[in-house]
Amino acid sequence: MIWPRNSCLRLLLLLYILFSCQLGSAYDIVRDYSGSTFFDRWNFFGNWDNLTLGDVWWLSKADAFAQGLTYVNSAGNAIMKVDNMHNVVSGQKRNSVRITSQDIYDVGSLWIIDLKHIPFGCSVWPAFWTKGYQDQWPVGGEIDIIEAINLMPNNQMALHTTPGCNHVPEAQQYQSGATTQTDCSLSSGCTVLELKENSLYTGLAAAGGGVWATQFDVSGIFIWFWSRPNVPASISATTASTGVDLSDWGPPSASYPATSCNIPEYFSAQNLVLDITLCGQWAGLSNLYFPSCGSGTGTCYADSVVGPGSNFNDAYFEISYIRAYTTGAPAPTPNALVSISTSAPTGLPTSLLAPSKPTASSLFFPGSAEGRQANMMLAIAAILLVGFFNLWL
């Protein structure tokens, strides 16, 4: 570039470059899970649900594909479902799927999931969540982005941690959801109920699906939901190789500022997890199951899991994409993604992380737009000082 000799022109050019940068993407993409390769970078559980004691057998990858419980449909969307084709007799478990990302993501990450359909039905317990990749739960933390049971009409979000992490008092909760529990170390976690319409059940699919975004920042953890008609333009415009800007997102549904929970202390690098279980330690509780689903057999298992597969025709995820972003890496092209290397020790999951030393993002919510504006003004002031200094030379 040839710089103008006139100092004022040089200053104007610097300002133009600054504003151009500020209009660029706030987060750079590091991984896109979509289309025919959606399932390539996930590990399948391949065992019965010994974690939440659900009445399912989570299949291996080979079995899940062979039995038609995972596939990519004609629209290019990933399907992950409960077996709805076979009769289950008493004493057997129903087949389902749980997958965990091979990639791990540290503080400084952002995840977006675009869903056309979320599993629902009596006994059904779907979840999209993250967990500490090397830790014994709840060490390393857990972020529940999407979770519900049975016929719940609204999504529930939560954090799970060891003692000491709490949701901030109501007056400091800059969020649209309703807090129902503040202690993140309880078995329920610190929970927030989605108040926007069509986050689950039949309403989600009827509205054309929806989008969730989760910001995993040293300044806090923030979760957004938008029904299809309300998805921000900045997200709708993204592709598998472009970054994303948060400035038009508005308040999150759940806001967990770091003022009452030190994020790097309570959360390690995270795996992404998608699963569907049945009954178990939440959906199968009699006080939660029977008000909307019970028919008098005595248990969630006998009432729903045993019997024909048609009970589970709505128990499936249809996923347009999951995308992971970071504040700490250049945006790779789709071809470059396959050649990204890491220094992870042999045997550990591949890591596509933000810088290992967490630094506060100026884009954290609340105040992401304000933070960017403040940074812009500081940079402008610095350039003006340089410009005026050059005038004296």
Describe the overall structure.
- The chain is α+β, with helices and mostly antiparallel strands.
- It has a single domain (28-334), classed as Jelly Rolls (Sandwich).
- Helix content is 20%, strand content 27%.
- The chain contains ten helices and 19 strands.
- The chain has helices at residues 7-22, 61-66, 201-206, 233-236, 263-266, 280-283, 286-289, 300-305, 334-337, 368-391, and strands spanning 28-34, 42-44, 47-48, 56-58, 70-72, 78-81, 94-96, 98-105, 109-117, 124-132, 142-147, 156-160, 178-179, 190-193, 210-217, 220-227, 254-257, 270-278, 316-326.
- The strands form three sheets. Strands 1, 5, 6, 9, 15, 16, 17 and 19 form an eight-stranded antiparallel beta sheet that branches.
- A hairpin with a 7-residue loop joins strand 3 (47-48) and strand 4.
- The chain is globular, with a radius of gyration of 23 Å.
List its salient traits.
single chain; 8-stranded antiparallel β-sheet; globular; 393 residues; alpha+beta
Short structural description:
The protein is of the alpha+beta class and 393 residues long. The protein has helices at residues 7-22, 61-66, 201-206, 233-236, 263-266, 280-283, 286-289, 300-305, 334-337, 368-391; strands at 28-34, 42-44, 47-48, 56-58, 70-72, 78-81, 94-96, 98-105, 109-117, 124-132, 142-147, 156-160, 178-179, 190-193, 210-217, 220-227, 254-257, 270-278, 316-326. It is 20% helix and 27% strand.
